[in-house]
Structures are given as structure tokens and as C-alpha cells.
Inverse folding.
């Protein structure tokens, strides 16, 4: 299955990636090869099989609902590209 | 002293042949002197390592500290380390200094081990050659024109070049075992859930597992003793008792039933490499094991299914990199959308973007059933194949990789060629099983690996089987001569 440049643009938008024209045309050709690889799956008869999302089919472990974390807002916000007044700063969203 | 693995270093530290500080400073000097040729480290931790070494010496002087107290190791730069940059091989995290240690790192610190530095890797562990790192290609110590394998290529090159006695690594589709094979090392990927993933930057959460890159099976057992165990902070870590992985290293192998998958000895395997693998199997026969052919009939579907499941999980995991809370942010964003897009486009490299796109596509409306659900059904088929085979044999053996290390630059034009690198290792991750690669020969002075796969939580048995081979052969002692 091949893929069109408008498909590539749509996927890039979903993934929040900006692709240059060169990147987009490279993506289209490598995508087609990857899809050819992936499409080998269609040859397998998987009728009646339950999908396996996880190799170890254990039930999720639960714990008591007790406070285990301390507030480290200042320390964590030091990692942010921009922060101030205890907030993460981003470009203006609402005019 | 640079030839010693961690078991030997532990004995020599205990005997007082050298102190941890002497050893650590010799290693640091060695790294600064030689690593320019290999590029195996992203960050070297001179100050921290020396202070950890001094603390270890003080503990030993008081009769405190365990066997590994004062033994230096390196950590793959995917494990968060408090106060030391954790880049994951990406521009996105070039400035990221984690506020906490990964559980794995914390356990090694508690054991008194010394962190020499953080090793290079394919960006976000996506690659099989260590050519996708933002910090540049890693060179294989056996031939610096060749790749060390990936994604744990820096860990493998550092240990093989004697710039660390051992290192941590991670494996999502073969990222410990293939570089171990290419660099002549013992590489163990434990059962999924055996080692905590907390603080290990996620690529594909249902496949990622931390393990060891060492000079011997004994060293690997010592490291796993530290790393393994349930972690309440990782809800997918499994609450199964931790064994002493060194305790059964010396068990005889009489009666061991080895299965060799016909599919792994078929077209595509280098004939000289096949010959070496068959010679290694001969060693096991001499040790009392029996060998029978088995079939993993769906193994050809493992790479296609993996390249849906892993990118799908990656596309979700990597959506956290948005330029808001940590990591890279583009200059002068015009608005929020522009900030997300340019941050991610400038912060991620080509292979990472490719996999995010493939994963996004596979999960998108209209394709979810045809790709993602289909891949999960094939994952079931692959697991069923293993379950069936393990009613007949104890372990499965074959080549780790179809060939020895390839030249830098020759396989990175077509992503699919690179994806097929992991043809023998990927199914093991899909089924969550433990797997190990041990050195089993040389072709034109390049190492190759024997791949050993066991049942869930059979790490002790795998290490026993590997150790017995290493008592009979000296491939694991061969070095690149650097």
C-alpha cells in the first residue's frame, strides 16, 4: 500500500510534527516500504485469537491510597523552559 | 586491571589489591584518554564517581558494604540520574537533569557501586546501530569503521573497549543482545517485569526491559542480583521472589534439552556464522545437553508485528515531549500549536519522527483494527508458538544476529533493512521472555553471539547455561586488543 503526501500531512498533524518538503517526501517513500513490511501480517490467519496487549497477563497491582509524594513544585518547575509564579508559561492561548 | 570484570574487581577490592578510588580514577583517566575513538560515553561523571569511590572505600574499611561496593559501572543514558544529565541520546533532552534516580540506579547506588558515566545510545533507544544518537555514532572497538550495534551501543562499546567493567542497558527488540553479539560481550535481557522500569525513559512500555552488558555470565548474575525485584513504583514489575542468580551457575547441564528453530537457520544467515553457532551447540552436546530441531512457524511475522506495536506505544509515550514541562523548546513560538510542532520537529531526530508517524498512523481511525489489533493477534500467535515449544525443550538456541557488525553508514538508507537486524531477537520481547547473547566465536576478527532464550523467569537457568559454556571456551575473554 502506498501513501499520499496528503496522508503524510494528516499524520504529521496528528503527531504534532512539522515536516519540511524534503522530510515529507522522504517520509512518503520510507512509509511505503514500512507499510509493505507491516502488511506481511495480513497473510496470517488470526481468526478467533484474542489480541495480546501485554506478554505478562498479570492483573494490575493495587496499593493502599496513601500519600507517597511530596510537593516539589519549585524543583520540578526549574526544569521547565519557561515558568513563573508557580506556573508553566506557554504562548498566549486566549486573546 | 582494565581486563577485570566485576566479579574479579570485587575479589581484588576485598583483597586490598587496590582501592575503589584508585581503580575509579584509573578508569576515568582511561576514558578521557581513549573514548574519543569510540564515543561510547555521553557524560563522564568524574566528580560524582570519585566521591562515590571514596565513600565505598570508607564503607569497606569499616567492614560494611556488599560484594559490589566500590565496583565501577556505567549506565545507559536512558536511566534517570539525579543531578546528572539524562539525554536518552536526544536533542530533546540535551538539557534535562532528572530530579530523581531511576530505581535501577538507586539500587546500584545502594549497593555502593560507582557510576563512571552515562553511555551513548540510539535516540530514545530507536535503532540497531547506534547511528541515530544526537551525540554521534558510536564506533565498535573491534573495528572502529563498524557499528557497535544498538540501541545499547555505547554500553557495549564502553565495556568492550575496557572503558567500564560492566554497564546497564535496555532491550525493546534486541537492544542488549545484538550489541553484545557485535562487541563480544554477554548481554542479558531479563523477563519482562523482572527489573523495574521506573525512571527508565519509555520507548515501548509493553516491551522495554532493563538488563546487563558484561564480560561474563557470572558478572551478569552479580548485576542482576542488584537490579531484579518488584518495585511498587512500577505497576508492571512482577512480584516474584528474587533468586541469588550466582547460586546455580555451576550446575551441570546433563539432560538439558535445547531446541534450535529451523526458521533461524534458514535463508539470510551468514554461512560462516551458522558454522560457528553449530560448533557452539557441539560444546553443549559435550556438556551433556541434547539438541533437537523445533519450529517457531510465525517467527517471520515478529518484525512486522513489532513495527506496529512498538511505534504505536512510542507515539503515545513520546507525546509527553511538548516543550512545556522539561526538555527542549523551540525559539520564538508564535502560538501553542507552533510551539508543539517546532519543538518536536527540532528536538527529535529523523528515526524517532518516523516511528512516531508510523505509530500514529497505526492507531488512527480506520487503521486501528487492520494494524494495531492485527499485530496484537500476531503477538498472541508468537507467544503460543513459544508456549508449545517450551513443553518440549528447556531452552532455545540460535544466532543472535544473522551477521557480524556492519560498516557505519551502509544500512541506514532504508529503515526496513535496519529493522530486519533484529529478526532473531524481536519475538522474545513480544512474548516477554528472557534472552541472553554470549560470545561464541570470531569471523575475520569480529565477534558473533549465541542467542539463548528461556521460559519466563528462568534467568538463573540461562546464566547457568551461559556460565558452563564460558568454563569450556574462551570467546568471552577475547578482546579487541585495545
Amino acid at each position: 500500500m502506498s501513501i499520499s503526501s496528503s496522508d503524510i500531512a494528516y499524520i504529521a498533524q496528528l503527531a504534532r510534527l512539522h515536516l519540511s518538503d524534503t522530510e515529507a517526501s522522504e517520509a512518503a517513500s520510507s512509509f511505503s516500504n514500512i507499510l509493505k513490511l507491516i502488511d506481511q501480517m495480513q497473510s496470517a490467519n488470526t481468526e478467533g485469537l484474542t489480541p495480546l496487549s501485554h506478554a505478562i497477563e498479570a492483573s494490575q497491582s493495587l496499593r493502599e491510597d496513601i500519600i507517597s509524594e511530596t510537593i516539589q513544585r519549585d524543583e520540578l518547575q526549574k526544569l521547565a523552559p519557561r515558568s513563573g509564579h508557580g506556573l508553566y508559561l506557554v504562548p498566549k492561548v486566549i486573546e | 586491571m582494565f581486563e577485570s570484570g566485576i566479579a574479579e574487581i570485587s575479589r581484588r577490592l576485598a583483597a586490598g589489591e587496590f582501592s575503589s578510588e584508585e581503580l575509579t580514577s584509573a578508569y576515568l583517566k582511561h576514558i578521557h584518554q581513549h573514548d574519543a575513538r569510540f564515543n561510547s560515553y555521553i557524560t563522564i561523571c568524574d566528580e560524582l564517581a570519585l566521591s562515590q569511590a571514596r565513600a565505598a572505600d570508607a564503607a569497606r574499611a569499616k567492614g560494611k558494604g556488599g560484594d559490589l561496593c566500590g565496583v565501577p559501572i556505567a549506565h545507559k543514558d536512558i536511566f534517570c540520574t539525579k543531578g546528572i544529565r539524562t539525554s536518552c541520546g536526544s536533542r530533546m533532552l540535551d538539557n534535562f537533569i532528572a530530579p530523581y534516580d531511576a530505581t535501577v540506579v538507586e539500587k546500584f547506588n545502594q549497593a555502593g557501586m560507582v557510576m563512571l558515566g552515562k553511555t551513548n545510545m540510539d535516540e530514545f533507544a530507536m535503532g540497531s546501530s547506534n547511528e541515530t544518537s544526537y551525540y554521534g555514532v558510536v564506533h565498535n572497538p573491534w573495528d572502529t569503521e563498524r557499528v557497535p550495534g544498538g540501541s545499547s551501543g555505547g554500553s557495549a562499546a564502553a565495556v568492550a573497549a575496557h572503558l567500564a567493567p560492566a554497564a546497564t542497558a535496555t532491550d525493546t527488540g534486541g537492544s542488549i543482545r545484538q550489541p553484545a553479539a557485535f562487541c563480544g560481550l554477554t548481554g542479558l535481557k531479563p523477563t519482562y517485569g523482572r527489573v523495574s522500569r521506573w525512571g527508565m525513559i519509555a520507548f515501548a512500555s509493553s516491551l522495554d526491559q532493563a538488563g546487563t552488558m558484561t564480560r561474563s555470565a557470572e558478572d551478569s548474575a552479580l548485576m542482576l542480583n542488584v537490579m531484579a525485584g518488584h518495585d511498587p513504583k512500577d505497576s508492571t514489575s512482577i512480584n516474584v521472589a528474587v533468586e541469588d542468580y550466582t547460586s546455580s551457575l555451576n550446575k551441570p547441564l546433563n539432560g538439558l534439552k535445547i531446541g534450535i528453530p529451523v526458521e533461524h537457520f534458514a535463508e539470510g544467515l551468514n554461512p560462516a556464522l551458522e558454522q560457528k553457532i553449530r560448533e557452539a551447540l557441539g560444546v553443549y552436546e559435550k556438556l551433556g545437553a541434547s539438541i533437537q530441531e523445533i519450529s517457531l512457524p510465525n517467527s517471520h511475522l515478529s518484525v512486522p508485528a513489532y513495527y506496529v506495536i512498538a511505534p504505536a506505544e512510542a507515539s503515545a509515550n513520546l507525546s509527553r515531549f511538548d516543550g512545556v514541562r522539561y526538555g527542549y523548546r523551540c525559539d520564538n513560538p508564535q502560538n501553542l500549536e507552533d510551539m508543539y510542532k517546532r519543538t518536536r520537529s527540532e528536538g527529535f531526530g529523523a528515526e524517532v519522527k518516523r516511528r512516531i508517524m508510523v505509530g500514529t498512523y497505526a492507531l488512527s481511525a480506520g487503521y486501528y483494527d487492520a494494524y494495531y489489533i492485527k499485530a496484537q493477534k500476531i503477538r498472541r500467535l508468537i507467544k503460543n508458538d513459544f508456549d508449545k515449544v517450551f513443553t518440549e525443550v528447556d531452552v532455545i538456541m540460535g544466532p543472535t544476529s544473522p551477521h557480524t557488525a556492519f560498516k557505519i553508514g551502509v544500512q541506514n538508507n532504508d529503515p526496513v533493512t535496519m529493522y530486519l537486524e533484529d529478526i532473531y531477537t524481536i519475538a522474545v520481547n513480544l512474548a516477554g521472555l528472557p534472552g541472553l547473547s554470549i560470545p561464541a566465536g570470531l569471523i575475520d576478527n569480529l565477534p558473533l553471539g549465541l542467542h539463548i532464550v528461556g521460559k519466563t523467569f528462568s534467568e538463573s537457568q540461562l546464566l547457568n547455561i551461559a556460565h558452563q559454556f564460558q568454563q569450556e571456551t574462551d570467546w568471552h575473554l577475547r578482546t579487541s586488543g585495545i
